[in-house]
Amino acid sequence: MKSDDFACMISRSEPGPGDGGRTGSWRVQRPVIDTAKCIPAKTGKPSCFTCWLFCPDAVVTKTIPPTIDYVYCKGCGICAEECPAGAISMEDESRFITEENDKGCI
Ligand code: SF4
Ligand code: SF4
């Protein structure tokens, strides 16, 4: 049996952005990153990325600074809870309603 055949017989999990659908449409709070507090944004070094690691929807980028894809972010708040620098705040989604309407996200 070739290794490719074996790969087809086992379950595999390869999470990606939007695995749960366009969840941004029902978010009530959105995470906002304060780049003045975010460790990689402040230092310019590829460190931390705890938000990227813990996001269950894989919508945080591992970039400097990290960014969040709000089309798919469901607003669960895990990133804000886990951020060691307190750099992510959960803001009321209604503050951004005009911006989201313009992008067609809601
Ligand atoms: S967890 Fe916080 S400090 Fe770390 S990369 Fe994300 S926003 Fe920045
Ligand atoms: S609130 Fe944070 S952890 Fe939750 S889906 Fe959005 S970016 Fe990911």
Question: What's the helix and strand layout?
Answer:
Blueprint: H1 3-9, E1 29-33, H2 39-43, H3 50-54, H4 78-82, E2 88-92, H5 97-103
Antiparallel strand pairs: 1-2
The chain binds iron/sulfur cluster (2 copies).
What are the main properties of this structure?
alpha+beta; Alpha-Beta Plaits; two-stranded antiparallel sheet; globular; binds iron/sulfur cluster
Explain how this protein is built.
With 106 residues, the protein is an alpha+beta fold. It has a single domain, classed as Alpha-Beta Plaits, CATH 3.30.70.20. Helix content is 27%, strand content 9%. It contains five helices and two strands, in the order H-E-H-H-H-E-H. Strands 1-2 form a two-stranded antiparallel sheet. The longest helix is centred in the first third of the chain and has 7 residues. One iron/sulfur cluster binds next to helix 2 and helix 3. One iron/sulfur cluster binds next to helix 4.
What is the N-to-C order of secondary-structure elements (H for helix, E for strand)?
HEHHHEH
Q: Terminal Cα separation, in Å?
A: 49 Å
Number of domains: 1
Number of strands: 2
Tell me what the CATH architecture is: 2-Layer Sandwich
Question: Could you tell me the strand content as a percent range?
Answer: 5-15%
Short description:
By secondary structure, the chain is of the alpha+beta class. It has helices at 3-9, 39-43, 50-54, 78-82, 97-103; strands at residues 29-33, 88-92. The protein has a single domain (20-103), classed as 2-Layer Sandwich (Alpha-Beta Plaits), CATH 3.30.70.
